[in-house]
Amino acid sequence: MTAPTPPDPSLLLQVEDVHKSFPGVKALDGMRLDLRRGEVLGLVGENGAGKSTLMKLLTGIYTREAGQFWLDGQPLDVKGVRDAEQRGLSIIHQELNLVPHLTVAQNIWLGREPLAAGFFTKPGRQTARTRELLDRLELDLDPNALVRDLTVAKQQMVEIAKALSFDAKVIIMDEPTSALNDTEVAQLHTLIRRFVTPRTGVVYITHRMPELKQITDRITIIRDGQYIDTIDTASATLDEVISHMVGRAIDTSARPVNVRHDREVIMRVSGLSTPGLLRDVGFELHRGEVLGFAGLLGAGRTETARAIVGADPMSAGEIELKGRKVVIHNAAQAAALGIGYLSEDRKKYGLMLNLSVEHNIAISSVADKFSQFGFERRRAMAAAAQDASELLRIKTPSVAQLAKYLSGGNQQKAIIARWLVKDCDILIFDEPTRGIDVGAKEEIYQLLNRLAGEGKSIIMISSELPEILRMAHRVVVMCEGRVTGTLGADEATQESIMELATWRVSEQREAA
Ligand SMILES: Nc1ncnc2c1ncn2[C@@H]1O[C@H](COP(=O)(O)OP(=O)(O)OP(=O)(O)O)[C@@H](O)[C@H]1O
Ligand SMILES: [Mg+2]
Predict the structure, then answer these.
(1) I want to staple 230 with a disulfide (CB 3.0 to 4.6 A). Which of 220, 317, 341, 348 is the partner?
(2) Which domain holds residue 393?
């Protein structure tokens, strides 16, 4: 049998008329795409549109029902990720695919360790090779650190290093920057520019619209598994891309809604220190306020949240709730005190992949709202989960679906739904909109505003400055484990926040 002729042999990667279904879902329905040599092609679409599915078909993780792929003019039919890598197709997965108990070096070379004496890998050589790679990529990572001890952002960098360590023709990046801040995104973009030559190309999936302008040459839009259009980045406006993607216009220029003049302090944190990082962190959270937390990677925002809810030990400090001192030992106790905590790491601390969407939404409320597990309660739980799922437009055949079958952004929506059902006075959300599409983001912002309007208080940790500026009534900025300043909504700008976020506390103190 002769191979079918590719429609255009000058293209680097071609996808023609691909179909894929899952029970109850048509994930891809005649999808196509082409990647030219030497270009970065953006791929955008709403949560559940089918982006990751397409990438998983390309790399042989799933098998397609119909359609054709070509790589460099050759029909492409890979058997799995290793096979894909050997053919020059490397992927950065949306859900990080690292082995937590192995080191950075072991993860990067997994399955292709340099062998010594037939059997044993040479750890020394592996470390040296890794260091060389990381130096070349200018990534600040320790080859011998265990992956489970790394923040989500650092884990994402390991995935990036891994993908770039292959001699790839095409790198597929499925939301490579969801955990990165602007500085790190710029760093990744530099790496991409260095990677792209006249014989290579990148498919770049993102929900962060401004990145499309920064790094892509063209943008392909997918909606409900179908190809919509491909446009040149230079001539496209982001509004145009967004309306193609969600099928309607979205106003992304809104600013924080006015705070009510209710200055009741609902939570006061003072002198908070941890053995590792935090030094004397203090702030007040008012009723009905969205308090943003900004800073660079490692500034201590996640650590602050974790110390407050008792997930990490504190070495000093006090927490007062409505004027009463409390000691919190774990997240369950925090929840009992009316503090909901959404972790930045949904896979490790949030989502139960093998439970249904319904259970994932209702789980924190089971103890109180849905306590007696009678039939009535079950029904109430199902109804509440159903409502929340509809409110957030979680894309799933039903709430009985297991969480692991949801797309990344829809998994994130399910955890947000959990805290909406729970009815807490205080919500601490760490990167709540990570991986969520532009349209749904705006809906979540409106929901959070409504909660604040009802008198709930929200701490929003975010690496996306536009999100902080959009939402926060006040912004606490951290750097190197300390609070370097608090800005009102009227003072907060990209510049004023960045200045405080890069404030070198140690240098400042030496100078003083
Ligand atoms: N293994 C699976 N079993 C069942 N359904 C699945 C499976 N994988 C994906 N789906 C469904 O296929 C659809 C497309 O999902 P996909 O992960 O490709 O979306 P996506 O565009 O990557 O979204 P996101 O932006 O949220 O990452 C979704 O409705 C999802 O629930
Ligand atoms: Mg995806």
Answers:
(1) 220
(2) 349-423
Same domain, 404 and 288: no
| Mutation to probe ligand 1, out of 19, 22, 59 (largest number of atoms < 8 A from CB) | 22
> Does residue 259 lie within any of the structural domains?
no
Main-chain dihedrals φ then ψ at residue 342, nearest 5 degrees = -105, 115
Nearest-CA residue for atom 17 of ligand 1: 407
Count of structural domains within the chain: 3
Closest ligand 1 atom to the C-alpha of 437? Answer: 25
Is the CB of residue 412 below 6 angstroms from any atom belonging to ligand 1?
no
Q: Are residues 321 and 445 in the same domain?
A: yes
Please give the full DSSP string across 185-221, using - where no structure is assigned: HHHHHHHHHHH--TT-EEEEE-S-HHHHHHH-SEEEE
Q: Are 184 and 177 in contact (CB under 8 A)?
A: yes
* d(CA 407, ligand 2 centre) in Å: 5
**Is residue 50 within 6 Å of ligand 1 at its C-beta?**
yes
256 falls within a domain: no
Residue 433: CB within 6 Å of ligand 1? no
Q: Does 3 fall in a domain? A: no
Q: Among residues 423, 441, 469, which one ends one of the domains?
A: 423
Q: pLDDT digit of tens for each residue in the chain (512 aa)?
A: 455 666 788 899 999 999 999 998 999 999 999 999 999 999 999 999 999 999 999 988 898 888 999 999 889 988 888 888 889 999 888 777 789 999 999 999 887 765 554 445 566 788 888 999 999 888 889 999 999 988 877 888 898 888 888 888 999 999 988 888 888 888 889 989 989 999 999 999 999 999 999 999 999 999 999 999 999 999 999 889 988 988 877 776 667 666 555 679 999 999 999 998 999 999 999 999 999 999 987 899 999 999 999 999 999 999 999 999 999 999 889 999 999 999 887 777 788 899 999 989 887 776 555 555 566 677 777 888 899 899 888 999 999 999 999 998 999 999 999 888 888 999 999 999 988 998 889 888 988 998 898 899 999 999 888 899 999 999 999 999 999 999 999 899 999 999 999 876 555 555 55
**Signed CA dihedral, 198, 204, 208, 209: sign only:** positive
Distance from Cα 474 to the centre of ligand 2, integer Å:
32
**206 and 83, same structural domain?**
yes
CA distance 192 to 130: 19
Please name the residue ranges forming H helices in 196-300. Answer: 209-215, 238-246
Ligand 1 neighbourhood includes 405 CB (under 6 angstroms): yes
Please report whether residue 253 resides in a domain.
Answer: no
Do residues 388 and 437 share a domain? Answer: no
Ligand 2: distance of its center to the CA of 146 in Å?
A: 26
Point out the ligand nearest to the CA of residue 435: 1
Q: b/e per residue, 122-146, with b = 16+ CB within 10 A? A: ebeebbebbbebbeebebebbbeee
- Ligand 2 centre to CA of 351 (Å) is 16
